[in-house]
Amino acid sequence: MAKYLIDTHTHIHDPTDRELSAADTFRHAHELGIDKIITIGTDPQNSLQAKEFAEEWAGKGERIFWTYGFHPNEYVEKDRANLTNTLNMASEALKSPQNVGVGEIGLDYHFDGYSVEMQRELLLEMLQLAQDNRKPVSFHVRDAFGDFWPIFDNFKLPTSVMHSFSDSKKNLAEALKRGLYIGVNGLSTFADIAHPPLERAVFETDAPYLTPKQFRGTMNKPGYVKYVAEWAAEYYKVEFGEVARITTENAEKIFKI
Known about the structure:
Elements: E1 5-10, H1 22-31, E2 34-40, H2 44-58, E3 63-68, H3 77-80, H4 83-93, E4 99-108, H5 116-132, E5 137-142, H6 145-152, E6 161-162, H7 169-177, E7 181-184, E8 201-203, H8 225-236, H9 240-255
Parallel strand pairs: 1-2, 2-3, 3-4, 4-5, 5-6, 6-7, 7-8
């Protein structure tokens, strides 16, 4: 049985995305049984902030890792002219010993004002970055799977994760068919959504977002993975320790941590 859990998707490197100090955030996580944390970049500057944060705290003994991401909603017209330079800098950043992947990246057609062309352009470049560097990906896809699957299918990636999946059973089946694992978070504790088999799940918080049911209205924290795991033990009718073992082994395998 696993003695600890992993938060595979959080944003704690940004001080505005946590209510505790970094030291207290780690302390709180350890008290609740979370031993490893992956903090996720959302644009070039934010990703380098994640890098610096992970490297600093790893140097202090924390098991903290990071990913280089460019969220589809963060890519705006002014970024296009500098995209080649951005990707070159990203390739260098991926050499960081604490880097474990690319993400979050994907497509998001949920809000008005998006550009399909620009989002697809960025996704193609970021997938090439991941493929060239043999890095797993944390995907963010919302209301866009019709466009996403044909793009995804053109790349050969290491085993990767569909972050915070909340779409149809059909698209869940498509994700599982393609070997993707599914990020399960606080959303599962209060929303009627499709769930993967436990063998294909990893836990995440997406902190400070998607706080589990019992803490709705407050900022999420990596420590709250414990409550996602408690929900999963009840939902899957499996002992908590077995839930921890399966999801921890999944995360360690995918991200090589």
